[in-house]
Specification:
- This protein is an alpha/beta fold.
- The chain has 10 helices and 10 strands.
- Helix content is about 40%, strand content about 25%.
- The strands form 2 sheets. It has a 5-stranded mixed beta sheet, with helices on both faces.
- The chain is elongated.
């Protein structure tokens, strides 16, 4: 198991065991933490090997990080539930939560699609828990045991859960003060980059090998955006699996996305896309990258950048591509519809 997987797993176990003790130590503070009762955890069909206790531990650890929330420990909930049943007492989830003076009920749903983990959180609050707030968060599944080949979900669960919870409580900076800050970020798919080759110009291998080089461009954009903490990109395998769900099995990376591809992405609630054009000109290869967001009216362009590749070289292409991608996502401004 990679060291980071062991470390995260250890942290969440420690947090789970001691989060309730944290609540007691804070009582001397003028600001009392809000209590959260886990009303339900739902795990998707592609996560059969995931134990719900891992999610409870990750949630407890996340609440401890905030200093504003405390989770009602499951062992106390189970003990009270068993006692009440022995007494023949009928009760609801809300009544059990009120027994622990919980301010919130939380429902946690985790789903996996290929290499992307999605967490959906629903918070119920106010009198009789009648008000509701929702949040969603994504994370790339990065780690795998080198021996068993099983996925190590803990780091991804933490990231997706914290992003979803921050959205649900409407505080994007809730987990932003950590050494590795976690903030809500939009989901992103890199679609096709249209290659335009013109007759009469010097033959460039960059354009002659459009199938291979368009894949190279998309992979490079994925690498840059994955490190940015500005977007959560979907890798090519996950993107193509989305297309396959709608019986589109042969995406052409050297062409602009068609309506079928865009429809599929929208159905999966993808928020933003990157597309573009690589055009052969007298000066060289003109690369244009476009960042757009799905809105109620279709696609709205957020940013557009342009640069020139002056040499028929992958090294030169990568240099220009890196500069343009960073500019593209750095100037992105989130606005409401």
């Amino acid at each position: 198991m990679p060291k980071i997987g062991r470390l995260v797993l250890l942290l969440v176990i420690i947090a789970f065991n001691y989060s309730y003790a944290q609540q007691t130590s804070r009582k001397s503070s003028s600001l009392q933490p809000l209590k959260i009762y886990i009303a339900g955890i739902e795990i998707g069909k592609n996560l059969e090997d995931l134990n719900p206790s891992s999610i409870e531990a990750a949630f407890a650890f996340s609440m401890m990080l905030t200093n504003f929330f405390d989770m009602v420990p499951q062992k106390y909930v189970d003990s009270t539930r068993i006692q009440w049943k022995r007494e023949g007492r009928a009760f609801t989830i809300a009544e059990l939560a009120k027994h622990f003076q919980a301010d919130f009920l939380v429902y946690i749903n985790l789903n996996r699609f290929k290499n992307i983990l999605r967490c959906d959180i629903t918070l119920l609050f106010d009198k009789d828990y009648q008000k509701k707030s929702n949040g969603s968060g994504y994370s790339f599944i990065n780690y795998q045991d080198t021996v068993s080949k099983k996925y190590l979900y803990d780091p991804s669960i933490l990231t997706a859960l914290q992003r979803a919870f921050a959205v649900a409580v409407k505080d994007s900076n809730l987990f932003a003060k950590a050494k590795n800050p976690i903030v809500p970020i939009p989901s992103l798919v890199i679609t096709g980059i249209e290659f335009r080759k013109k007759e009469g110009l010097l033959n460039w291998s960059l354009f002659a090998n459009s199938v291979v080089n368009s894949y190279f461009i998309i992979e490079k954009i994925f690498e840059i955006t994955a490190k940015s903490n500005v977007y959560q990109p979907f890798d090519i395998e996950t993107r193509d699996s989305i297309y396959a769900t709608f019986n589109f099995f042969a995406p052409e990376n050297y062409k602009a996305p068609n309506q079928m591809e865009l429809y599929a992405l929208r159905q999966f609630e993808v928020e933003t896309i990157i597309t573009g054009v690589f055009e052969h000109t007298i000066e060289g290869g003109e690369l244009t990258l476009i960042l757009a967001r799905f809105t109620n009216s279709g696609l709205t362009e957020i940013n557009r950048v342009k640069g020139l590749v002056t040499k028929d070289s992958l090294v030169e292409l990568e240099k220009v591509l890196t500069e343009l991608t960073n500019k593209l996502i750095g100037k992105e401004i989130l606005t409401e519809d």
